[in-house]
Design brief:
Helix 2 packs antiparallel against helix 6 and helix 6 runs parallel beside helix 8. This protein is mainly alpha-helical. The protein has 10 helices and 2 strands; from the N terminus they run H-E-E-H-H-H-H-H-H-H-H-H.
């Protein structure tokens, strides 16, 4: 069934003259739009007094941080030295290559800028952001599936998909969809349900849970995900770059959960005048 779905969907959603609009681009747009809506709704439930202007600043900062961070992260972690020799190709977004871990770092850095501009505590913004982020992950992974990229290892499971091209004509795990469900829908369901509790959980709780859950899910899925061809398996023939990058997320998430439990700082709106 999944193989039939993959074969039936064109990576190009529609075309207007010479301009081709791909599902991958639509996934990014939908992800950011939904993120803005969810942040606004959760902030309203938490009575943070988030203004529309604050929301626009947050979404704009995160958009820039995610895109720049994801690209630089890919070039650094997965480029295998290529981009050191061809630095101008870092700007070649049309060639593909985005890293979630780099995008996460970019988003966290951009969140610090947004916190400074809006006067909202950084961890409150981070908590809001990670509640909204998983739906963007879901759409992004589904777009990866449509593009036939980031596929998994060969399998004889009924869910196997023949991606063709570099993946060959053998059924493979649709790891893009595994990630979309676990890293997207499951994490969103847990965090959004928790966000409905009143009073809201202490600052840093949601960021900590997100990092732990994403790190664990990604680490496990890497066992059936085909590693990038230029890197292959690392350290003993089974560890992947994705696992190496995910392990620190789990540790960082645990640290944030401990911090949130000990400090028990309430979620707050603007605590200072926004920067000019």
């Amino acid at each position: 069934m999944l193989d039939a779905l993959y074969q039936a969907i064109d990576p190009i959603a529609f075309q207007i003259g010479p301009v081709a609009v791909r599902w991958y681009g639509i996934a990014y747009v939908l992800g950011f739009l939904l993120a803005g809506l969810i942040i606004y709704r959760v902030a309203k439930r938490w009575k943070l007094g988030l203004a529309v202007e604050d929301l626009l600043v947050i979404v704009l900062c995160v958009m820039v941080g995610v895109i720049v961070g994801a690209r630089l992260g890919y070039c650094l972690f997965y480029g295998d030295g290529y981009y050191l020799a061809h630095p101008l190709d870092i700007l070649a977004f049309n060639q593909g290559g985005m890293s979630f871990h780099g995008g996460l770092v970019g988003a966290l850095v951009a969140g610090a800028v947004a916190a400074k501009v809006t006067g909202i505590p950084y961890l409150t913004l981070a908590d809001l952001g990670v509640i909204a982020a998983p739906l963007g992950l879901f759409f992004g992974r589904f777009a990866n599936f449509i593009n036939g990229e980031l596929w998994g290892a060969p399998t004889d499971w009924p869910l196997g998909v023949v991606f063709g091209g570099a993946a060959g004509d053998i059924p493979r795990h649709p790891t893009q969809l595994y990630e979309g469900v676990l890293e997207g829908l499951v994490i969103f369901a847990v965090l959004f349900a928790l966000s409905r509790r009143v009073p809201p959980r202490p600052r840093g709780t949601f960021l900590g849970l997100f990092l732990v859950m994403y790190g664990v899910f990604r680490f496990l899925i890497e066992f059936v995900r085909q590693p990038d061809a230029q890197l292959g398996y690392l350290f003993g023939g089974w560890v992947t770059m994705g696992q190496i990058l995910s392990a620190p997320l789990i540790l960082a998430g645990i640290a944030f959960l401990i911090y949130a439990h000990k400090k028990h700082l309430p979620q707050e709106g603007r605590t200072s005048e926004p920067s000019a």
